[in-house]
Amino acid sequence: MNAIAATLGLTPEYRASLFDKIIPSVQGGNYNVGMSSFTDSKKREEQVDFVTYFSAGSAWAQKVGAGINPEDACGMKVAVQTATVQDTEEMPARSKKCAESGKPAINVVKFDDQTAATSAVMLGQADAMSADSPVTAYAIKQSNGKLEAAGEIFDSAPYGWAVQKGSPLAASLQQALQHLIDNGVYKQVAANWGAENGMIDKPVINGATS
C-alpha cells in the first residue's frame, strides 16, 4: 500500500481496526480502503468492491512435532481470528464433517486479533491455528522455531482491497498496481516478505471465484 500510495502521489494514513468492523467502516466512509487480508468473495462483493492484489489460501500451524492433520482434527481446539473466512466458513464446514462421521466437533477458539490466536497455540491453549497462508507463514517465521506448518495450503483465492461500491478509487488502485507489477516493484515487495508464491500478474475489480 505504501508503494501504491506513492504511485498515486498520496500519503496513506493507517488505522488499526477489529477485522469485522473494517467493511462496515468502508461502507460508511470512515475508511477509504480496507486492506487487512480480505479474501475477495461473492458475498463480500455485495457490500464493497474489491481490487485483487494477491492469491492466498488457508494454512494451519501447530507446535513443532504436534503431528496434527487438519483433515482429521475433530475434537481439537483450533484458534482463529473472529470474522475471518476460517471462522465463518472453514471451521463450520470441518465441524459438520466431524458430526456426519460421528466424531466430536472442532472446538473453535476465537480471538479478536491474530496475534492472540497465534499466542494461544504457543501457550498450549489451542492445539493449532488456521489463518490465511501468508499470515500463518509469518506467524511461523516469528515464532523462533516453536511453530511449524500443519498440512498444506488449501482453498487458494484472491485477496482484495475493499472500497465503497462504485467508487472510482477501485480503478485507480487497479491501475497503480498494474504499474507496480510491470516495473518490478510488486515482485520486490513480495520477495521482501517471502510471499512470491502468491503473486498475480493482472489485478481485477471484483475477481471473486466463490
From TrEMBL:
Claim: Signal is one of the keywords in the record:
yes
Instruction: Check the record and name the InterPro entries matching this protein.
Output: Solute-binding_3/MltF_N (IPR001638)
Among SMART domains, the record links this protein to: PBPb
Keywords assigned: Signal
Q: Which residues form the Solute-binding protein family 3/N-terminal domain?
A: 2-197
Please tell me whether the keyword Nucleotide-binding is annotated for this protein. Answer: no
PANTHER family, per this entry?
A: ARGININE-BINDING EXTRACELLULAR PROTEIN ARTP, MEMBRANE-BOUND LYTIC MUREIN TRANSGLYCOSYLASE F
- The protein in question is named Polar amino acid transport system substrate-binding protein
Q: Which organism is it from?
A: Mycolicibacterium lutetiense
Organism phylogeny: Bacteria, Bacillati, Actinomycetota, Actinomycetes, Mycobacteriales
